[in-house]
Design a protein that fits this description.
Blueprint (H helix, E strand, L loop, with lengths): L1 E2 L10 H6 L5 E2 L14 H14 L5 E6 L1 H12 L4 E7 L9 H9 L1 H12 L6 H13 L2 H13 L13 E6 L7 H10 L3 E6 L6 H4 L1 H14 L5
Amino acid sequence: MFVHGAGGTSASWDLQRLAFPAAVAVDLPGHRGEGPGRHRVEDYTAWVHTTVHEREWRPAVLAGHSMGGAIALTYALGHALDLTAIVLVSTGARLRVLPAILDGLRADHAGTVGRIITTCLAPEADPRLARRLTEAMLAVPAEVTRGDFLACDAFDVMARLEEIRIPALVIGGREDRMTPPKFAEYLHAHLPDSRLVWVEGAGHMVHAERSRQVNEAIHQFLIDLGLRG
């Protein structure tokens, strides 16, 4: 089960869905314009928990990007029996957000989204990818995107990682400027059963920038868990 990041939608996982056709990618509340979003990672996690139980998707491998990774960590802390493992892509145990982003999303939403996407991508990323990601984030209601970043800013489970005993795959882009490499290193150092995979030449949107390497890492992780990759 793939969970997108702040200001995103399930479409951000399209290249993973092609590689893992049995997987599902969800749209968090409000991100397709139906109903409100949330302002806390815990509230998004509660929605994911309800969805997993209603659709009988247990036991699940829960994969999250950025804010989605925060949701996966929170889920593992509260409902570990629902999960076989977690996959943490470009995320951290704490996700502080610059005040300039929070203020900018209110005062100049389009301009701030453009700056976010620029920061999310490695310098050599395809400009066409930047345009697609910008258009996708602008399609999410502005108040939902800002709520997501507020949720990230309040998130902090740094002191609780050692409580998570299920297997975890941590994937990081070497050129990630939103959640720099030290974030992935901290996760790997403090999650008791984790492996860390680096993707060279990729930024925060590593799963879109270098989908083949990310898919291969997930595939091998599933095989090593005794699951079909």
